[in-house]
Write a structure and sequence with these properties.
single chain, about 190 residues
Amino acid sequence: MSDLELLTQSLARNVKRWRTERGYTLDTLAARAGVSRGMLIQIEQARTNPSIGTVVKIGDALGVSVTTLLDYEQGPKVRIVPPGQVVRLWHTDAGSYSKLLAGTEAPGPLEMWGWKLMPGEGSSSDPHPVGTVEICHVTAGELTLTVDGTEYRVPAGSSATFEANAAHTYGNQGEVPTEMLLAISVPPAT
């Protein structure tokens, strides 16, 4: 079985599990996540590989991390994620990417990402639930962080934190690749 097939089946199983655990119907989850009921049916039947944006919306609506939705085994209390198991969820032909390095529930979803943005590229995110916080640390280049329409420059060696319940974009307006680590904490679903 390929990695993509494994992820598709894990996503199907975990979305259905968490939807059932939360007591949500397909219609309820579709409304909370802002995705169609048909898309949820395809996901739960492992018939589609949705975009990372769709997976994030579903995770936010369920109050669980992307890691939890893609997890194909329930591990021990200590979980080591070797490089070969890091999940690349977004990439461009120019070489930009985001990799989900690790995640957990503490008490809501908590994720750590590795990002690389090539010059002139960026990635936008819809607002997350109120109470979501993101922390990024730039290790190379300069990040142009745009939150709710305001641009912030974050040079290598610097960090930024922000409330992520507003639209935000990670961009590279420089001439060298930008690399950063990103942590996202989402409050538990109520």
